[in-house]
Hints:
mainly alpha
Amino acid sequence: MAFILLAIFILIPIIEIAFIIEVGGFLGFWMTIGLILLTAVIGSYLIRLQGIGVIRRLQNQLGRQEPPVQEIVDGAALVLAGIMLLTPGFFTDMVGFLLLIPPLRQILGRAIKMKMSSFNAASDKGSYHSKDTIIDLEAEDITEKSNNMTEAALNIKENEKNPNSPWHDG
Length: 170
């Protein structure tokens, strides 16, 4: 995972510099700067519009007491798109604009759901489900009464009630 992050932090700036040099050589310096600023402004406007829609859908889902899974994915994708669009460069702008396309976000949401369900299925395989009786005790129950109860517990016969028990009826 660390290698992937390192590669991303090295490769993305190299790709951005290459794109800016190529576009700058074709359009010129000022047009390239203007295009970078224009993509940031247009992207911010589109994120604002789509973000309001996602918030409305999220509120409707919560009002119907349904899990807003796709809306959460959409919201996270819009945050990532905003970061990408505000980062100067053409490659990150392209990725940011792709994240603004709702069908692509739905595909991303389905992929995440499948990954999560396979993760949950894998984690359930190794889970331990005890059929034994569970006794819920506080630390004080064990430490304060353990000395008194140990001796009494050793003297208890199988079907005999313990008079020292806090649940003893009297």
